[in-house]
Write a structure and sequence with these properties.
Rossmann fold, 2 domains
């Protein structure tokens, strides 16, 4: 039996560290699990045969990295984002339940009449909780806005980050307008917030697409060494330019006036819809698009494996045609 083996991974780094190509697999496909250009470690996608990306922005990024690393061009298809589609459905279901007076949101705000800001960082030593901590959170708490702090789940696994979070919680416990969100789907925090503050987490664009609300990002000189992004021009990286369009950037010296900055950001929504449309391609049909592309890849693999027998296959088709024609002619003559 003819078999066309395809291995599909959302994990990058094929043939770089632990994940090695198998001789029993003919084709390795990577499905990107974000909607903005990927912050993968160097060579993250170099050795895949194909990549299913969410949008044209990611496609352009993959091509730039290919040129920088001088590797073979991969098959790239734009398929949308399956996880964003799923989050959208879950968010809509949650919203429908809320509107029917059946409360399902596990996050409780003390004063729902106030604007709410979500702090949603990435994880690691370069993130806003690790680099700024109280310098940012305490001025925010003093604004009187509702503040929801949602650390990245990985931050609770890394010992130094977990200790930092515990210390922040203890110091900020006196502010009843600041709460911590952990172990709940992010859609619940999303649905309560009027804006987000983040660093370089891909959740920034999930929030923009799902909620259509602005994001303020902390501007710092992120060390890109060791990442694919380091091998292309920083000026060409779409993400850094887009952050200005979806709410703006701020630096540490502006933390003292963070309330005023947030007021400005919540008024800056003019580019959100255009960014959303650019990033969220094939909304609610990414699964179908992905399956279609995988079927195309399988067909190509089968066709390629049959090339040595192409003359025989062509002859079989000719014979089938001749036999069918003969049957039709015989049938017609019998009728007469």
């Amino acid at each position: 039996m003819l078999k066309a083996d395809i291995c599909v991974l959302t994990t990058p780094g094929l043939d770089v560290l632990h994940i090695k190509r198998s001789r029993g697999v003919k084709h390795y496909c990577h499905i990107v699990h974000s909607i903005s250009p990927m912050t993968y470690r160097v060579f993250g996608i170099d050795y895949f045969d194909s990549v299913l990306v969410a949008n044209e922005v990611q496609e352009d990024f993959v091509r730039e990295v290919e040129k920088a690393h001088n590797v073979k061009r991969k098959y790239i298809a734009i398929t949308g984002s399956t996880y964003l589609d799923e989050l959208s459905c879950n968010l809509q279901s949650s919203t429908n339940l809320e509107s029917s007076s059946t409360s399902v949101n596990p996050i409780t705000l003390k004063d729902k009449s106030k604007k709410t800001i979500l702090i949603s960082p990435s994880w690691g030593k370069e993130t806003l909780l690790s680099k700024y901590g109280l310098k940012l959170l305490e001025p925010l708490a003093r604004t009187g806005y509702n503040i929801i702090v949602r650390p990245h789940p990985q931050s609770f696994i890394t010992e130094s980050e977990a200790q930092n979070i515990a210390s922040l919680k203890e110091t900020l416990a006196k502010y009843d307008n600041l709460i911590w969100d952990q172990d709940t789907p992010n859609i619940y925090a999303f649905s309560l917030c009027d804006m987000m503050i983040s660093d370089f987490s891909s959740v920034i664009f999930d929030f923009v697409c799902l909620q259509g609300k602005p994001v303020l990002t902390i501007k710092n000189d992120m060390d890109l060494s060791g990442y694919d992004m380091a091998d292309i021009s920083r000026d060409s990286i779409w993400t850094f330019k887009a952050l200005e369009r979806i709410g703006g950037r701020c630096v540490e010296s502006e933390f003292a006036n963070i309330g005023q900055k947030c007021d400005e950001v919540m008024q800056n929504t003019k580019d959100l819809d255009s960014v959303r449309k650019l990033l969220w391609r094939y909304p609610h049909s990414a699964g179908d698009q992905s399956v279609l592309e995988l079927l195309k890849i399988e067909r190509e693999l089968i066709e390629s494996s049959l090339k040595p027998q192409s003359l025989l296959i062509s002859r079989l088709r000719e014979l089938d045609s001749m036999i069918s024609l003969n049957r039709f002619t015989h049938s017609q003559s019998t009728l007469h």
